[in-house]
Amino acid sequence: MKERILDSLSLFGDAKISKAENALFLELQKELSLSQEELEKKCATTLKLLLHNYDFFEVSTIDKFMHRVIKTFAKDLKITQSFEVELDSDLLLDEAISRLLQNISGNKALQKILIDFALEKVEASKSWNIIYDLKEIGKLLFYENHYYHVHALKDKSLKDFNELKVFLKSETETISRNIIACANNVLELIQANQLEFSDFTGQRFPKFMLSLQSGNQKVDFKAAWKQNFDTAPLYNKSSPEPIKTLIDGLQPKFSKWFNDIKNAFNTLSFFKNAYNNLLPLTILNEIAKEISNLQGEMGILHISQFNKLISNEIAHQPVPYIYERLGERYRHYFIDEFQDTSRMQWHNLIPLIGNAIETENIDGEKGSLMIVGDV
Length: 375
Description:
Elements (H helix, E strand, L loop, with lengths): L1 H12 L9 H10 L3 H17 L9 H11 L11 E3 L2 H14 L5 H16 L7 H8 L8 H5 L6 H35 L11 H10 L10 H4 L13 H58 L1 E3 L2 H8 L6 H8 L5 E4 L7 H16 L9 E4 L4
């Protein structure tokens, strides 16, 4: 890449060479609103500047740059100076899963979790073989966007997950009973006031409560009458006036119980989702621990760890100190293929880039940033 940059600058800066058919030169000329002579002069000057300061001219991937930063801060991060970079996620994951399965004979809690996971697959009409699923779950550990969520669980034990499972099950049962109790209250109130189902528009409201009373939880609140429950009349336009007056008088109580049920269902849905994902999450956490142990024993660091380490530790260091440890300071940044830059990589670069474009050198010049990427 350096060679391509220097070759282009050399070509563009040579006034003796025709650029009439050079698409890149013509595009630059148009974009910068420069004459051919002006652009040739700029390219020649830039080439001379780069060659005279070649040690400060660097082209690298973001991962390679982060690797240098981590090498510099290895002691601070409590990792060996001679750590090796592991690029193969599958190899590391396979070894971690293999070790996890080898440990189940001496770990009854882990054994139960993996058996429950296999049974859950069977109930869903899937293969009982969990190896494929363990690999698919484990891949999440190498995605930076999931890092903070998984990292928050690193100190949790199998006992912690089991206690959460018991709590969620207890809460869902309590909420389910409360929903049935609210439905009972509504139906009892309708009966006590000698109202018929036919007194309500399309019998929708009492039938909905009857469904909840039977324990049906496959319901939603998308229907228009449910969306406007507090304001829309519950009765037919053709209903006698006494019936309308009676239902209007009961509307506040109906609304309270209806909203209580709606809120309860939202909470119930949240708890159920958490409960259903708890088993895979427990296994994911155990795989993460095995990977961490493997990396420590083998003196390796997966490439996905770079940005995480910097995010956790180095990001809190003063920028001049980071540059000092690196042994050089960058003032101009050009990031290509920016759409492939992860959020964590970008946040780790912000302090360095910010320092470059916000400060001046002794000549009063500020740094710069150029970002190029697909829309």
